[in-house]
Amino acid sequence: MDNIEIEEYISNLNLEAPQYLQDYAISQLVNIEESKLYMLLQPVSKSYWGNAAIVLKQIGYPRVKSIIPGLLEWIQDMNWPGSKEIVGLLVTIDDVIVPYVKQVLKSGDGIWIIWLLSEVVSKWDKELRTQIKDNLLELAITMNNNLVIEGVDLQALKLLNEYELIDSKKALSISKRKRELYLDLVENIDEFIGTIEK
């Protein structure tokens, strides 16, 4: 399949195209060469993404190995069309995904990280989670506002605790320290509100 043919099929992924054209395009695009899979990563505009995600999920792992970073980018916002299908694909990938996940966990993008943790990593088995244990611990103890506001720290701690990747005493210690910090923050805010209201 050459690029022109692929682009023609992609144009029929549009939700406004007749259903029979969408279905036919999907059936043809599942045969796309691996070197051209990148063309299905969030093509054209959002009205194409849902069907493109269906194609990618049908293609499946290991054929999508070369576009794992692009698949992870797709879940930066779980409100994007096709994101649920992409999650369904990502959770089928073995430990090849781990280095890419580690990059996202170090990105500082709280929204992207919380989606990754809650939608993908939460479905991993203990063996995969163990490979990112240090990253999860780093996130659990973070005081980075961007990450704390999104609840990344608590989600990471929950994932560590769920498979006993840290002992319960350490999990409890981190949780209590977080609570103290949050209470101090609330007290400071309440004090500030009090000065404004006077």
UniProtKB/TrEMBL annotation:
Residues 52-83 form the Rhodanese domain. InterPro entries: Cthe_2751_sf, DUF5071, Rhodanese-like_dom. It comes from the Bacteria. Transmembrane segments: none annotated. It holds the Pfam family DUF5071. This is Rhodanese domain-containing protein.
